[in-house]
Structures
1.
Amino acid sequence: MTVAVLATLRADARHAAGLRDALLRLADAARDEPGTELFVVHESAEHAGHFVVFERYRDDAAVAAHRGSPAMADFRTALRVAGTTPTVVFLTPLAGVGL
């Protein structure tokens, strides 16, 4: 069953660039993860350092593989440095366009 994830996080001004770079590295690594169908990083146009990530995985095993990846471990380090934690919501897709 397809699993979607919506993650939001905020970094203060002095950590925004580092967290942005870490998110971009994580997105790059996600391209090579089997079962990762979508991984899109957004940054608020109005509030620098406010990020929203939309993810979609083939199944729970793909989510587990992503969460256990070396890239995710590196991202967790960046979160600790920035002193922030994401808010993560797991979703079941019902309908949409362009999926």
2.
Amino acid sequence: MARRQADGAAARHGDRLSEAARTILVNRRSRLDLLPAELFGEWPWEMLLTLFVADSEGRRLSARMIAAELACGPLTMTRWMQHLTRTGLVIGDAATDPDEPLTLSPTAITALESYLGSVLASSQLLVE
């Protein structure tokens, strides 16, 4: 019984983290309605958040799919995916096969969960 409750709490926490990631992505994209796109060039961060959300939904994305979702050019996508792979944050070979499914490494997942957890904690302070 306690195990099921712990699993349920972990799932709700994971759902809250993925919802925080989705909210960040939506808010970041809404900036484009207000200001020129060239002011916002954080492709690797967008890629990591997109992979985090996809993973939480049980989806696997390729570099080509991420590029389409983010409206990112293929050369920019390839360059950043190579960097994210070299730094150990993304697993997959987007450089030679843009259709290969990609996933976040355990290191990236831990870092994003930590960041998103702190975002949720700080947002609670704003509500109280």
3.
Amino acid sequence: MNNVGLTVRKLREKRGFSQEFVAGKLGINQSSYGKLERDMSHITLDRLYKISDLLEEDITTLLDIGKKNVINNHTNQGNGYVETINNDYKAMVEDLKSAYEKMLGLKDEQINLLKNLLEKKEKIG
């Protein structure tokens, strides 16, 4: 999961988006967003999902899960990727997805509660 910011930057550039554009969509300033891309700031799960939606990429792509950089033993050059199945990462992603879905459910419950409170307030006064 190292270099999430670098992966995000490469995908953002591939889409032709500026840092300012993505930062605006995330509701943060460009400076804060730049720190995310330079891995100088932690990316929350919620923000990571927003970035993956904006870049139209699966969150596992942002986390670079399922790929491992390999070095050619004969040339000592990093020249490719080997697809791997890493059950630990897959389980972690599933846990993150479950937590995110639970957070969305709680958000919906809070919205319904606020709607009910507003309706009661309108009836009273």
